[in-house]
Amino acid sequence: MAHLLKQRAIQVTKSGTPKSDLSYTRHIQLHNVPKSALPADIWRLCSRAKLENVETVDIDYQYLRPTGRAWLTLTDPSYTERTMRKFHDGIYIGASRLQPSKDARQSAEFLTRARGERGRMQAAGRGALGSGPSARVSGNEKNVALSGFPEYTQVEWVKDFLKSFKLSNTVGKEVLKMPMLTKESFNSCTRFLIRLASSSEAHRLVRKLHETDHEEASKDRKWRIKAHIIY
To answer: Which residues of 137-174 are buried (b: 16+ CB within 10 A; e: fewer)?
Structure first.
C-alpha cells in the first residue's frame, strides 16, 4: 500500500497542473500527541492556528490505551493540503510538535463503529473494538477503560463491583471484557470497557477508582486499579 501511495503522490489534472494526492482525503493523522491530551486541547490548537475547517477530532487508541496519535476530519478534502502545511510549519502542544501524516483509508472505514452485541464481539475478537479513532465506541466520555484485574475476572463480578455507579441502561452492553492480547504484554491483567449512564457518572467512576487497590482476600494479594475516560 505504501509504495502505491507514493506512486500516486502527485497527479496531473486536465489543465496539466500537478495535483497532490492529499486532495482525495479529508482525514489527517497526527503523531507525537501527548497521551494525556484531550480532544479539547487539540481543538484549542486548531483555533489558535486558524484551522477553521476541522469537523471532528478523535484520539487514537490501541486496546483502550491512547497511542500518542489523533485524527482530524476536515469538512472537505480541498482543505487537507493547506491544513497539512500549517502543521508542517509547526504547531505545538506543550513541548511536543505535532507531526501530520495522511491516512488513505476510505471515509466509511475510518468512521466504522462496532454496532450491536454480535458486531461488538466480532470487532473485539479481531482487535477492532477498543482500537482506532475514539476506540471505535460510541457515546464518548460515557465510556471508561477499567484495568488491573486478574485475567479470570468475569463480567458479572465487575458489574457487582460497580453497583454503586449508574451503568448504561441497555442490558448486556454495560460491561465488555476485552480479549487478552498476550499475557507477557499486560502482566496477566485484563481490562474492561464500562458504559456509564452519563458523562458525569463516568468521570465520577474515574475519580473514585483510578489508582486504588483492590485486595483479593482469598489469595492475599492486591491489584492496582486504573480507570480512564475514553474520548
So the answer is: beebbbbbbbbbbeeebeeeebeebbeebbbbeeeeeb
Of residues 21 and 49, which shows the higher confidence score?
Answer: 49
User: Cα–Cα distance between 219 and 231 in angstroms, integer?
Assistant: 35
User: Is the pLDDT higher at 119 or at 98?
Assistant: 98
| Residue 64 to residue 47: CA distance in whole angstroms | 28
Neighbouring C-beta atoms of residue 132, cutoff 10 Å: 21
Q: pTM to 2 decimals?
A: 0.78
Q: Are 193 and 143 in contact (CB under 8 A)?
A: yes
What is the rounded CA–CA span in Å between residue 202 and residue 72? 25
Q: Of residues 197 and 17, which shows the higher confidence score? A: 197
Mean pLDDT of 58-65: 92
**Long-range contact set of residues 110-115: C-beta below 8 Å, sequence gap at least 24:** 110/27, 110/71, 110/73, 112/136, 113/137, 113/138
